[in-house]
Design a protein that fits this description.
heterodimer; A: 375 residues; mainly alpha; 2 domains; two-stranded parallel ribbon; 1% strand; disordered C terminus; B: 246 residues; alpha/beta; four-stranded mixed beta sheet; two-stranded antiparallel sheet
Chain lengths: 375, 246
């Protein structure tokens, strides 16, 4: 199984709180120029609760003046939530209270309008109380919350919280390797899950610097894998943005909304290496794969990654560099596969080269995938 | 660019500016209208550099077949920098033919059947190696630095991976892996082949036999020593005249 991210409770709670808050005050985040901190929100909630309570009291007072007692008001407000149809509500009251309640007041249209307003106030109060309870319960996550509210990604996605929430679920659940782009390779390279907030931070930085457009991100599996790989390369010291520059603006703009394997190989190939210098060198293998249009053959990419691992494991950086330069300039990716296999068998890249020298024959590029070759 | 194609005049402009940057290697001798450029009724998608330009041992000049060169650049959809690099690569290929002639290898090479002309893959390899290294190096001696920018080197794999017929395609069997991976210089291998073919009459070995022969054993120290006399000579190679065939 493959998992891309580890759930961070504080982050998810902060995110849910923000979602509830956005429902209450849809324009608050948009209007607040700087970060909306958790303290701003607590004071905003308290003010709103007072306001809403006084509105509700006023409405209940009006209803009482029309002969509708508080107890009945509560029932009516509840029923407003069930149906907006006065006739059905009246019928329901009649059946419940028989003749013990006078319903003349309910013939007044103004009363129904006030009842509707009271219902809305009650709803809002209930949501305010819920958020208020959440704030108290998660008082310790103010840092996570404050960070989220400062993010362009979160602000711009304020009407699509569910999309983001589903994306987080996608990151945090287990996948069959075959169901995830590059899933088998992620397992092969033993890439561990990263924390969800880290991925969000990387998306934010790509959005802020104009590499990604919030409105065009599809939050698909391919995008999730891309961000996972981006986080890995950046954490390992090879800035993911360097790779984007390597991919080139034209190709990046063309593919960034669909994240095909052609883009993903630029990240997965360097990750076959552990050492930073080799990772940088590995980028040119990705470039060659793209230029030879071999990236669609995932089995071939797997062979390359496995061999690169072995080449690094059993050889010096100088030799790795030499082999990759040769493969790149003369388009001979098969040499990497051959040497990787020999290095593993001999437990030494030097010995692998000696063996190759002894064989007196180096296979030329065959332009066929492993699958085809085995047939 | 590249996507819409280059006009003949643009390609000529790239060529002219390259020639002026490559002073010491080439001298522009003008435009000619009657050359021995091949007529290609059926276009072959495989790359044969000697159709795009050729070295004439009689006049000791290089002739660039502009029509074919232009077609190739557009067929491979090269962008501006790769188009310029491609012309450089073609010119270097022909320069190596000229250099081999200057060094006295021609009599041996011309008696070989076309399919085993091991100077063709050698010229291919040296031209590609020069573009990748940014300098022309032959027989262990650096002839000159080339006007190749670092980011232009990305064009080299594009050229290396183009499909070629025999014997051109042998460059990535005979020379590139030996030098790139096993540290045996292409020149040492070339000398080994020279010795090998000097000792046998002008037979017509089939390509499979040839490739087997090439891998009998790696060049020895003796072969490496054979390269040394040519190190000084290559420094004395005069610039070759180059003509643009319209």
């Amino acid at each position: 199984m493959v998992r891309l991210a580890i759930k961070d409770e504080d982050f998810r709670l902060a995110f849910e709180l923000l979602y509830s808050f956005e429902q209450l005050f849809p324009n608050y985040l948009e209007l607040s120029t700087g970060k909306a901190t958790i303290h701003d929100i607590i004071s905003k909630i308290n003010i709103e609760k007072e306001k809403e309570q006084s509105k509700l009291d006023e409405k209940l007072g009006y209803l009482k003046s029309k002969g509708i007692e508080i107890e009945l008001s509560d029932v009516l407000v509840f029923l407003m939530g069930e149906t907006k149809n006065p006739e059905i509500i009246k019928q329901s009251i009649k059946e419940t209270y028989k003749d013990s309640v006078r319903l003349d007041a309910l013939d007044n249209e103004d009363v129904w309008n006030v009842l509707n307003d009271a219902y809305k106030s009650r709803q809002k109060l209930s949501l305010l109380n819920h958020v208020s309870e959440q704030v108290v319960r998660i008082g310790g996550i103010s840092e996570a919350f404050n960070e989220l509210t400062g993010m362009t990604l979160i602000r711009e996605m304020r009407h699509r919280y569910k999309v983001l929430s589903e994306f987080f679920n996608l990151l945090e659940r287990d996948h069959e390797p075959a169901d995830l782009p590059m899933g088998r390779l992620i397992n092969l390279l033993d890439l561990k899950p990263v924390k969800t907030p880290e991925i969000v931070r990387y998306i934010e930085s790509l959005v802020r610097e104009g590499y990604l457009d919030v409105y065009q991100i599809d939050f698909s599996k391919s995008f999730a894998v891309f961000m996972f790989l981006f986080a890995h390369v950046t954490k390992s010291g090879l800035n993911g943005k360097e790779i984007l520059n390597e991919i080139g603006l034209y190709r990046w703009n063309k593919h960034r909304n669909s994240m095909p394997e052609e883009l993903l190989v630029y990240f997965i190939i360097p990750l076959s290496f552990r050492r930073l210098t080799n990772m940088k060198t590995g980028l040119i293998v990705a470039r060659l794969l793209t230029e030879l249009r071999r990236q669609g053959e995932m089995e071939y990419v797997e062979d390359i990654c496995r061999s690169l691992q072995n080449i690094e494991k059993y050889g010096s950086d100088e030799l790795v560099n030499r082999i990759i330069s040769y493969s790149y300039f003369y388009g001979d990716l098969d040499a990497i596969i051959k040497l990787g296999e020999l290095a593993k068998v001999n437990r030494s890249l030097e010995k692998a080269l000696d063996q190759l020298r002894g064989q007196k024959r180096i296979p030329a590029p065959r332009n066929t995938s492993r699958a085809q070759r085995s047939n | 660019m590249g996507l819409t194609g280059f006009e003949k005049e643009q390609v000529f402009h790239f060529f002219k500016s390259l020639i002026s940057e490559l002073g010491g290697l080439f001298i522009f001798r003008g435009v000619r209208f009657r050359c021995r450029c091949k007529c290609l009724d059926v276009p072959d998608e495989r790359l044969v550099v000697d159709i795009l330009a050729y070295y004439d041992p009689g006049t000791k000049e290089v002739f660039v077949c502009s029509r074919h060169l232009n077609k190739a650049i557009n067929a491979y959809k090269l962008d501006v920098s790769c188009a310029r690099m491609f012309i450089l690569y073609v010119l270097l290929h022909e320069f190596v033919h000229y250099a081999l002639d200057y060094l006295g290898f021609r009599p041996l090479l011309t008696r070989l059947p076309d399919k085993v002309r091991f100077d063709e893959p050698f010229s291919e390899y040296v031209a590609l190696r020069s573009c990748a290294e940014g300098r022309l190096r032959l027989f262990g001696s650096i002839i000159r630095e080339l006007p190749v920018k670092e980011d232009e080197k990305r064009c080299v794999p594009l050229f290396s991976t183009l499909s070629r017929p025999v014997p051109y395609s042998y460059f990535n069997r005979i020379y590139a892996p030996q030098e790139g991976l096993l540290n045996v210089s292409a020149e040492a291998i070339f000398m080994k082949l020279v010795k090998m073919f000097s000792g046998i009459p002008a037979v017509d070995p089939d390509p499979i036999t040839l490739t087997r022969m090439l891998f009998i054993d790696p060049p020895t120290e003796l072969a490496l020593r054979d390269v040394k006399p040519y190190m000084r000579l290559v420094q004395k190679i005069p610039a070759v005249g180059v003509l643009w065939c319209d």
